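Recall that a protein's primary structure is simply its ordered list of amino acids. Everything else, from secondary elements to tertiary packing, is in principle encoded there. The following example makes that idea concrete.
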Amino acid sequence: MTGMLASVNSLDEALLVAPLGVDIIDLKQPAHGALGALPVAEVARIVTGLPAACVVSATVGDLPMEPAVLLPAVQAMAETGVDFIKIGFFPGGDWQACLTALSAVTERRIALVAVLFADSQPDFGIIAQLRQASFRGVMLDTADKRHGSLTEAMDFAALQKFTEIARNYHLLTGLAGSLKVSDISNLLPLQADYLGFRGALCLSDCRTESVDASKVIEIKSLLPSFYRAGASLCGRHAAER
């Protein structure tokens, strides 16, 4: 089944979506880029302020693929208690060196999710390496929100290939990137573990505006619940059980 990831940028927004059946509450600052990060202290405050049953992810920002930059950011975010840490695999840099460095984090059983960008036509061969590095999941997003949605950046056949490869490696799969309500019916047959939304949840469909509860409810009604249907969790909630 395919669940719903809702990106929020504050404790107020997180508390707004928490009772609406959202499967993953994703913390990021859209005004700061495709995967703009909130300050670590703010992420920790949001995690503490949410009910323990909430599953929370957070991004580390639009960082270069350099181990010396990426690893400290991931380690700092891990201290906040989020369930999943999302890491953008942007073009350029040394992906292999980053994967090697991040093994120090995955060895601590911290759940990392790699974000590939459809508008840069990524090589899905990296998915096997993510599995070897003990990542928990992989998702497709778009880096440049001005150039359309995920479904405009990549055709259905490529999206299907992505989800099939990720499933074969037993990774959680996510699809995001300026998704709209009209995209949901077309993407559900891919059986991704979750679809991610930000702009479609906001007033005027602008990702930097505030989340509108009615839009969250509308989208949630079109998606079955993945995590609440009994899928296993990793991270702080699993440890508490």
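Strands lie at 3-8, 24-27, 56-59, 84-88, 111-117, 137-141, 172-175, 194-197. The two ends are 23 Å apart (CA to CA).
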